[in-house]
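Entry 14. Ran structure prediction on the chain below.
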Amino acid sequence: MVLLNDVKNANKTTIIVHGVGNNQQNEMEQQIRKAVKNVLNALESGAVPGYGTIYMMIANKIRKAAISAKGKEAIAMQGVADVMESIYRTLAENSGNDAIDAVIMAKKLMAEGKLDAKPVIPAEQFLSIIKRSGESAISMLRTDEVLSAKPLGEDGFSTGSSKVVIYTSEGCPWCARTKQYLKSKGVSFKEINVSKNPAAIQDMIRVSGQTGTPVTVIKGQAVVGFDTARLDALLG
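Output, structure tokens:
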């Protein structure tokens, strides 16, 4: 126990810890310094609920906000909420608890307004963790891009990749006919299904100005619909 009295404006404070052996003294001093530093940080930057509760609270707030969002924004927000919740599950599992039971109980307590948020950590420390996590994620994505990248040819396409790209969607009969026509001409192509990859819709609109499928891109030129004459002209 550490008891400090009447030290509001003191320049120096001595903390005496009893019952600590020589082997544990250095470790105890480090822990006390860390605790004092965390308290000072909390006083300066504020504090947030500690342990995993903050992640569940963030997930809950994001899910509520996603209800009023639309399209891809709502999907992205739900994804972020899932990540926050997964952090809580991991912390629960690492603590020896059943991850699923912990999440269910946390949601129940949160709905009842009884989620324990008393344990706190300095806000600066929490924000630092989030920042480092984001930097790590970005670093991994950049590394993956470098490892998966292929040398570019003179025409700007990756060496060995198809120079023809066709944007398709589920249940599109003209998409099927366009693909079959390209195959009959012996043309290899890369298919991007915008129904499964909504993010590609913006790319399709950018190159064609259209929202309908199919859109076939040949040498940077877009062919909208099943237009064999234009396909032949661009394919040469």
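The chain has eight helices and six strands. Will compare against last week's run tomorrow.
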